[in-house]
Structures are given as C-alpha cells and as structure tokens.
Write a structure and sequence with these properties.
The chain has 302 residues and is mainly beta. 0% of the residues lie in helices and 54% in strands. The strands form seven sheets. A four-stranded antiparallel β-sheet has the order 1-28-27-26, with no helix packed on it. The N and C termini lie close together (12 Å).
C-alpha cells in the first residue's frame, strides 16, 4: 500500500520539547500537546490556531488522554499526579496523588469515562474513580518490575507496557493477568480498532505486531532508530499504516500487513532532533508529528 504525505503547517509556540500529542475524540477536529514547558495546549490543526492553554503542572507533561465526550481530558507528568481537566473552562476538575515518581502514561476507562488509569515510574498502574469523593486509587496493579511506560484500556481489560520488557493484560472481570515477554523495554502501545492486535514499540529500534489473544508475533517493523528515548508510534488509514518517529529526526511509515516501509521523511523534519510522538485520526486526512525541537508538524494524507 502506498502512503503519500505532505507538510501542511506547524503548531508552534511551545517552549521546549513536545512529549505527547493526541487528537480529540470522534472527528479529530482538535489536537492537544504536552510539553516540557509544563503546559498543555489545544490547537485546531486545520488552521494551526492556538485555542486554549492549560496551566497547572509543575513539571513536564508526559502523556495526555481525551475522554470520549471531548469535554474532559487527563494529563500526567513529572508532578507524580494525575490531572483531570474541563476542556472548555481550562479548569482542573480533579487531581489524583499517589504515585511515588513521575507518571508516564494515562488512559480513560469505565462507563462514561468514570475511571482514569495511570502508569508510572514507581512500577505501578493505578485506577482512579472520577466520581468518588476520596482522591485515593481504587486499585493498584504492581506486577511490573520496572517503570510502566504505556497504558491502554479496552472494556474490562487494562493493558500496560513496561521497561521490564513485558506487556501485561489485566482482565478485571476474571481477575487474571496475562504476561507477554517482549524482551526489550517497551516505549509505546497501540491497539488495532478491532482490539485483535497490539503494536508494541521497544528500545531495540523495532516495533512488533502481536495477536492479542495468542501472543503470536504477526509482523515486525524496522528502519527507525529507538534505543534511548520514549518514541511513540500510531496507526493510520484505518489501521493499514504504521507511523513512528525516530531518534535520528526522521519519520517513517510501514504497511501494517506486509511490514514494508512505504514512506521515509528525512532527518530535517524536526531539525534533526528526536521525533517523540505521532498521532493520526481517521476523521481527517491528516496526522501529526511532535519533536524535541518544540514543534508539532501537521501532515496531509492522501
């Protein structure tokens, strides 16, 4: 499958490395960025306009997750806390404390987005009830033996990736945990829309696609460089394309099924610096790349 892309515009005004970027839910008309300058910013990628700034973090923002209704989002970072925001008013609705180190990852779960799930440097995954009066975690999953770098939620399952080289699937309904040994530190997790496969990025400059139920390796993707930093990948074009940044400043795309590289944007994309994160939406023919150079590039997709 071919993958044609072109630069459209930049989302500027960040004062430091951009660690995470995500589209709003549904049509993906808006994008949120998390930066080392401790701010979260809301943009309209179609125009490049900055709509809102969210200021409460005291440290770098490392991950973001938008609720399904687009009215709220969650952010985490070096504060050891989980922030829940009202998008329209830019106010923090909740702040959950309990992690013993920086918080690397966050995701929404529960009925109507009633639960926030976070993963941190303290090796734990924690569940927070947005409706409860208490700010304490309602569940702590502590099976990881190193920093938790990524979390996903799918129905009654929580999926975590860790620097200990393992992907864990927690079936909360059955009270079971299933462990897949990848063997390399995990930096990114992305699930296919049908929830049948899991794309896992690791610090050996490789991404692997696993069958979620059996753990079978379906495909591997190489060509980018990822040995030191958390570099995140995403799926695009209705899960037909894999996109990832790289430590050499390039961005690459692969055919999901064949594993063949179909696009290579050279090292000048983000000034030759690490491309930390990418995001795509099927609601619009575009995708985003974010870098240590402090820019977010909007790309058109054919």
């Amino acid at each position: 499958m071919s993958f044609s892309t072109r630069p459209l515009r930049q989302l500027a005004c960040h004062n430091g490395p951009v660690h995470c970027v995500t589209y709003s839910a549904g049509l993906g008309q808006y994008a949120l960025t998390g930066c080392a300058d401790r701010l979260v910013r809301l943009f309209k990628p179609s125009t490049g306009g900055l709509i809102q700034t969210y200021d409460a973090h005291g440290h770098a923002v490392l991950d973001l997750s938008v609720a399904a209704d687009n009215a709220r989002f969650a952010s985490v970072g070096g504060d050891r806390a989980v922030f829940v925001w009202d998008v329209a008013t830019a106010r923090t609705l909740r702040r959950f404390n309990g992690h013993d180190g920086r918080v690397n990852a966050v995701a929404w779960g529960g009925e109507g987005g009633s639960v926030v799930v976070s993963g941190g440097f303290d090796t734990t995954v924690r569940l927070w009830d947005c409706k409860a009066q208490t700010g304490k975690a309602i569940m702590i999953l502590d099976e990881a033996r190193d920093s938790v770098s990524a979390v996903l939620v799918e129905g009654h399952e929580i999926i975590s990736g860790s620097v200990d080289g393992r992907v864990r699937v927690y079936d909360l309904r059955m009270g079971m945990v299933y462990v897949d040994v990848v063997g390399q530190p995990v930096t990114s997790l992305t699930q296919t829309k049908d929830a049948a496969a899991l794309l896992v990025s690791t610090l050996d400059s490789t991404m692997r696609l696993f069958d979620k139920s059996s753990g079978q390796l379906l495909q591997a993707y190489r060509g980018h460089k990822n040995t030191e930093y958390r570099v995140r990948a995403c799926l695009a074009r209705n899960d037909a394309i894999v996109i990832s940044g790289s430590e050499d400043g390039s961005v690459r795309a692969w055919d999901l099924l064949e594993g063949k590289e179909v696009s290579h944007l050279d090292e000048g994309v983000h000034g030759g610096k690490v491309v930390t994160a990418v995001a795509a939406t099927d609601g619009r023919k575009e995708w985003l790349s974010a870098g240590v150079d402090g820019t977010v590039q909007v790309w058109g997709m054919e």
